[in-house]
From TrEMBL, chain A:
This is Thioredoxin family protein. It holds the Pfam family Thioredoxin_3. PROSITE patterns: GLUTAREDOXIN_1 (PS00195). It comes from the Bacteria. InterPro entries: GLR_AS, Thioredoxin-like_fold, Thioredoxin-like_sf. Residues 5-78 form the Thioredoxin-like fold domain. Transmembrane segments: none annotated.
Automatic annotation (TrEMBL), chain B:
InterPro entries: DNA-bd_dom_put_sf (IPR009061), MerR-type_HTH_dom (IPR000551), MerR_fam (IPR047057). PANTHER family: HEAVY METAL-DEPENDENT TRANSCRIPTIONAL REGULATOR HI_0293-RELATED, REDOX-CYCLING DRUG-SENSING TRANSCRIPTIONAL ACTIVATOR SOXR. It comes from Spectribacter acetivorans. This is Heavy metal-responsive transcriptional regulator. SMART domains: HTH_MERR (SM00422).
Length: 85, 130
């Protein structure tokens, strides 16, 4: 079963589109399913997940990053896969 | 005559004179002693009871529940299980309210961060207007 990566973004969030594009690029090579959420539409779940800023990355139900993200950091997140038990 | 007038008691407790009369009317305070002129005189037991009421209100007990607690207070040993049940119920309510408040606090922080992080406009306002 592939891993599920969710990205929580917001309108006018300057870093959200770039982060989403970087993830899309990575998804071409890595076995992930991607879901995109507008944080204002799913705010209850966002709060429960502990999201305080966007973009926020949730992998298999666990918040792994929030806020601006560099390509290097994203690469490390998607390849280390510490969420896999 | 010994004791405090209603004005002095109001000043001492921070409660209004109307509230003091109301507590007596609904039985939270037993009938307060009167001087020969018919004016209320509050003694130390009344003040202790008023302090208990104020503490219980700060713990979020309703006036009805405080009435129960005051009855139980005068027979504390005999009524311990009832006091425990009442307090446990109130504690559960307070915990639920705290969880709700915690969620609300984190939601407001998130919304505020979204506004701070937005390059143009505020997504919250726009969401409300759409």
């Amino acid at each position: 079963m592939s891993d599920l990566i969710e990205i929580y973004s917001a309108s006018h969030c300057p870093h959200c589109s770039a982060a989403t594009e970087r993830i899309r690029d990575w998804l071409a090579d890595v076995d992930f399913e991607l879901q995109r959420h507008n944080v204002l539409d799913d705010i209850d779940r966002a709060v429960v997940l502990g999201i305080r800023q966007t973009p926020a990355l949730v992998i298999n139900g666990r918040l792994v990053h929030q806020g601006p993200i560099t390509e290097k950091h994203l690469q490390r997140l998607l390849t280390q896969q510490p969420w896999r038990d | 005559m010994a004791g405090l007038s209603i004005g002095e008691t109001a000043q001492r407790t921070g409660l209004s004179a109307d509230t003091l009369r109301y507590y007596e009317k609904i039985g939270l305070l037993p009938r307060v002693a009167r001087d020969p002129g018919g004016r209320r005189r509050y003694d130390e037991r009344d003040l202790s009871r008023l302090r208990f009421i104020q503490r219980a209100q700060r713990c979020n007990f309703s006036l009805k529940e405080i009435g129960q607690l005051l009855k139980l207070r005068s027979a504390a040993d005999a009524s311990r299980p009832q006091v425990q049940r009442l307090t446990e119920r109130k504690l559960a309510e307070v915990k639920a309210q705290m969880a709700d408040l915690d969620h609300l606090q984190r939601e407001l922080e998130l919304l505020l961060n979204l506004c701070h992080g937005s390059e143009e406009g505020c997504p919250i306002i726009e969401g409300l207007e759409s």
